Amino acid sequence: MPKRTRNESPQKQAMREMMKDYLKNNDVKVKDGADVNSVMRDMMSVLLEGVLDEELNEELGYSKYDYRNKNTDNSRNGHSSKTMHTTYGDMD
């Protein structure tokens, strides 16, 4: 029987490959729902951090270390820990 191909977008294919590589290269074993939830929490945490960093870049008009393009009085003035409440649990 020939192998069925998935009708996926290139983005979804890239995410699938990225996950396969992550699981393989980090020796992550997914045996049950708790393992899946743990991997999803880790992914969600990284994703949220990246999204929030990009949101701040957009709001301020310059990236974190690009002071040459800073055309505003508003600035990054420190870092503080924040907790986000998600369906995967609280994330710091």
Automatic annotation (TrEMBL):
Q: Which GO terms describe its biological process?
A: DNA transposition
Polar residues bias locations: 74-86
- Annotated region (Disordered), positions in chain: 67-92
Which is an annotated GO molecular function term of this record? DNA binding
List UniProt keywords, sorted A-Z. DNA recombination, DNA-binding, Transposition
Q: Which InterPro entries match?
A: Transposase_mutator
What does it do?
Answer: Required for the transposition of the insertion element.
Q: Which family does it belong to?
A: Belongs to the transposase mutator family.
| Name this polypeptide is given | Transposase, Mutator family
